[in-house]
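Sequence in, structure out. Go.
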Amino acid sequence: MAKKLLWVALLAGVMAGCAAQPAPDNTNSAQSADQAFDNLHNGFNDGQFGKDSKQDGFWDRLDVCKVLGDVFSTGDQVVRLGFFYGVEGEGVLGATYGMAGYDVVFDLYHRQMSVSKYFGGGMGMPGLGVSASVYAGIAEGFQHGVGDWDGYFVNAEFDVGLPFLKDYFSVTPVFFVSGVDQNDDNIISPSEILTPPNGVYGFSVGLSVGVDALPDVLPVSGAITEGLWMPHKSAIRHFYDFLDDTNILGYQLDVELVDHETGELCPSDWPDVDSERECIVEFGNNQSSNTKAALHMAWGICELNGGCLFPLAGSAALSAVAIGAFQDAGNSLGDICPDLAASLGEPSGE
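Output:
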């Protein structure tokens, strides 16, 4: 419920911008959407980000400074955040683990989204069984865009049996770092791991259900696994088509399908045509402010997560808006959060 209320607060601002507009027709929905978001954006910051922007109360409802807190004090690199969720199947035979799954990934800093498929394996607590899990997590280190997600990862995962039906249900926290296969042997050695703050790294928490033919000796088991993540092009297209058709109160979500390396628009019939391209979904456009594009992204995150009721989705949506505002303010903490800046001994932005 708390996450739903966070999204309602964000949506209330969008509706306030929409209320000043006549009901749009289907021929100009995109233009009307821009007008509505412009009204929201202008009312949000009164033409510039600064402490005067708090007069309209929108900052207070979003509570941007509380969302990101003192991470602003460490600069631009810390807010290169991502949010992801996915599903995974896993099999255990003795001490050998095998896994495969899909991730839906949002790069909050660059306002991009992609879908990846992966497979891999590793070693862990001996067992014999299969399981499936759903999970959500937070990642850090998106230096170039959401395409940074694809590649090799090394994971440390743990299964913690739940008190009820402990033989079937467990909570699965996973910590991961990315790696580079420098010698092309499809194995990531310790020297090829990109330790933080290099590469992409983070954590996820999942709920697993499965069966194990061997009795659990300990309530907690663990494994070290590695895998290769690759773009799932047909799924990317599916999610893009869904978001491109999404509207609320008649206003259309602003998304584009772009080449993740060049930023050029991908063909309208990709991946059936020009399938060698690696395209991703991007929120907003070149004419949008960072905040306006971030509002579109927050809207998209919540559309794909049941109104932001999925774990971490509400926080990710608000963080996207906060990061966009941070970028529009020239990365100046004092222009966005003067009280926080003062407490950290930074310029107030006046």
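Check: The domain at 80-231 is CATH 2.40.160 (Porin). Confidence is low (pLDDT under 50) at residues 1-37, 43-61.
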